Fold each of these.
Amino acid sequence: MIYYFSGTGNSQWIAEELARQTGDETQAISQLISDGPVAVYAREGASIGVVFPVYAWGAPRMVEDFCRSITLANGAYAYAVCSCGDEAGKAMRRLKKRFAYQSAWSIAMPNNYIIGYDVDSPALERTKLAAASEKIAAIAQAVLAHASVYDVREGAGAGLKTALIRPMFNAFACATKPFFADDNCNACGLCARICPIHAITMEDDKPRWVKMQCTQCMGCINRCPQRAIQYGAGTAGRGRYYRYSDNRA
Ligand SMILES: Cc1cc2nc3c(=O)[nH]c(=O)nc-3n(C[C@H](O)[C@H](O)[C@H](O)COP(=O)(O)O)c2cc1C
C-alpha cells in the first residue's frame, strides 16, 4: 500500500504513478484518519510506501503523526518519497525516527507555496515534471527490487533549516487568519470540501476558516476555480498551481 498526503496534487500524482508502475494501491492519509487515529501493520514481505510534500524542510505534522502508527514486521519493505519545490533539508532523516524505511527519495516538483513565492514559470514546471517522470520510473524499479537507496536532495544548511526553521514555521506560520475570499467567490464550497483538516466551513455564502491554524497545504487557495481566495495582501498578483488527478473529485 502507498499512503500519501497532498495539498495540491503533486504527491498524489507521484503516489498514483508509483502504484501504477509497481502494481500497488494508494490511500490518502487524510481520508484514512478522518474518523480518528488508525493502526497500520506491514507484514513480512509486504511493501509499504509513504509519499508527502516537504513543508519548511520537514514532513507535514499529519504525516509524522501517521507514521508513528505504522508497525513494520521484520522483512517488510518500507520506503518514503517526498515532493518538494527544490530541497528537502533533513525531512527524511527526521522521518526515519518514526518510520524505519529502507529507502528514501525526493522529487523536485512545481512550487505551490504561493504565500511565500510566485509559482514556477511554465518552462521550469515542464522541466521539473519531465525529470520527475524519469525519477518515478527509477523509484518504481528500486521498489520492485526492494533496494536500499537514499537519494534525497537535502540542500545547503539542511540540518539548521530542519532543526530551527521547521519548528518556527509550525509555531508561527500556520495561522489561518490571513485567509479570506474576495468578491470573486461564487460560494461553490470546493475549498471547504477539500480541506484535509476540515478547517473551512461555508457561512453566508463565504468560506470561513474556523480553526486558528492549519497545515498550510495551499489546497484551498491554489484550487479555487474563481481564484477568489487570498492570504493577506501578497497573493492577489501571484499565479495558482494545482496538479489535477484522474482520481480527485
Ligand atoms: C507550507 C509549505 C512549505 C514548503 N516548504 C518547502 C521546503 O522547505 N522546501 C521545498 O523545496 N519546497 C517546499 N514547499 C513546496 C512543496 O513542497 C512542493 O510544491 C510540493 O510538491 C507540493 O506537494 P503537493 O502538491 O502534494 O501538496 C513548501 C510548500 C508549502 C505549501
Note: Helices lie at 10-22, 29-32, 61-68, 91-95, 122-144, 158-172, 190-194, 219-223.
Amino acid sequence: MKAVILCDFDGTIYRGDVYEDLLLKFGGSDAYELFEQYKRGEIRSQGVLESGWDTFHVSRGTLEAEMAGMEIDPDFPAFVSWCFEKGVKVGILSDGLDWYIRAVLANVGLENLPVFANQLQFEGEKAVFSYPYLDTSCPLCGDRFAVCKRNVILDFQHEGQKVIFIGDGSSDRCAAPAADLVIARRKLRIFCQQEKIPYLSFETFSDVLEQRTRILQAVEGSGELSTIIGEDNR
Ligand SMILES: [Zn+2]
C-alpha cells in the first residue's frame, strides 16, 4: 500500500499556534497587531515570521525552553503508531517553521517525522529564513501563504501515492481539492462544505482514530469515497 497522511501542524496537531504563542509571550508590543494583520490577510506568512522574529526580546535558548513545555494533541502519537502499523507514512505539511515544529514534536519523540514547511536555520545566532515550497502562482495560497500545500500533495500523487490530508485553516484550502481524502475541522470544514469537497470531520486525534476503518478504506481504495465518508459530509 502506498499512501501518506499529511497533517497540518498549528490548529491541528498543536491546538493553538506555536509562533503566535511565542510572540505574545516574548515578542515586542507590536507582535499582537502583527498577528492580527496576518489573520486579516494584510501581510503574508513571510512577513509575520520574519518581522515577528525581529521583535523577540529573549534568546533563542529561552524560546526553545518554552517549546520544551508545549503539549500537542495527546492522541497524535497513538495515531502515528497506528499509521506505521498499517504501513502508511505520516508527514507534517505546515505553513509554519520546521524549527518549532520539530522542537514541539521532540516532546513526544516524533521529531524525525518528515516536515514540509518554511525553514529557519541559524548562522551563529543569525536567523535565516527560506521558503522552499512557495508558489505565488497558486490561486488559493499564492497571495498569502508561503507553503503551497497543493504542490506537495501533487508530488506524492505523481509518485503513485494516495494522500490523506488533515487540517483546519485558511492555509489548508489549496490542499483540500488536491487530496484523495480530507479530514477537516474549523475553517477548512466550512471550506469543504462550500466547495462540495468530500471530507471526514474531526475535532481531536481521538476522533481521527475513531474513523480509522474509513481512513483505511480510503487508503486502500476499497469502495467509492462518497460511500466511505457517508451521508453527512458531502
Ligand atoms: Zn497553493
Note: The longest helix spans residues 45-55.
Amino acid sequence: MKLYFHTAPNPMKVALMLEELGLSYDVVGVDTRKGEQHTEDFKALNPNAKVPVLEDDGAVVFDSGAIVLWLAQKHGRFLPTGDHAMAECLSWYFFLTTGVSPFSGQAVHFTRVHKDSEYATRRYTREIARHYRVLDDRLATSPFIGGAEYGICDINAWAWVRMAGFVMEADGGLANYPNVQAWFDKVDARPAAARARDLQAAHTFKTENDEAAMRAMFPQNF
Ligand SMILES: N[C@@H](CCC(=O)N[C@@H](CS)C(=O)NCC(=O)O)C(=O)O
C-alpha cells in the first residue's frame, strides 16, 4: 500500500485510519506548496490534484473521506452494525466530510491567506463556529460522533479538530465547545493517534506561503 501524503489535516485522517488498522504502508510525500500535486503521474492517480491518495492492492482511492470509508468497508472495522446505526453514522460522516472539513479549510484560507475580504472572513469563521456548535450538541448526548462506538466519524474528525486552535484562534479554539474538547482528549489519547502524530513529525514540507506556493495551491487565482 502506498499513501500519498502531506502533514495537512486531510491526509492525517488517512494516517490515523491506517494506524488504527495496524496496516503497513509506504509513504510518498507530496509537497503541495512546491506544486508536486500537478505532475502528470500524480494527476493520473487523482485528477483533482490533491492529497491524500491511497494505492491499495491495485485500487486507487482519492479524497480523504472516500479512503477512510474504503478501508473501513474493506476491513470490516470502525463501522456500526445495523441499518439504523449505519444511517446515523453515515449522516454524521458526511456532515464532517462535506461540512467541518472544507469549512475549516476555507476559514483558514480567509483568516490566514487572503485576509482582505471582510465578508468571506465573517462567512467562514461564523459558519465553522456553527458547525462546531452542532458537533458540541451532538457530543452532549452521544459518546462518539457516529454513535455509541468509536469509528469512522471520529477518525475523520480528529484531524481537523486537533487544528481547532489554529482554525478558530480568534474565537478561542475549543474553549466554547467543552463536549468536543472532552471527546478530542479521548480520541487523541489512542495509541494510533500517537503513531499518526509520529508520522507527521517524521515528514517536513515547505511551509512558506510565498508566491510560488500560492501559484501551486491556488492556480485558478492567477
Ligand atoms: N476533499 C479532499 C481535499 C483534499 C485537500 O484539500 N488536500 C490539500 C491538503 S489538506 C491539498 O492537497 N492541497 C493542495 C492543493 O489544493 O493544491 C480530501 O478530503 O481529500
Note: Residues 6, 8-10, 32, 37, 49-52, 63-65, 101, 217 surround glutathione (CB under 6 Å).
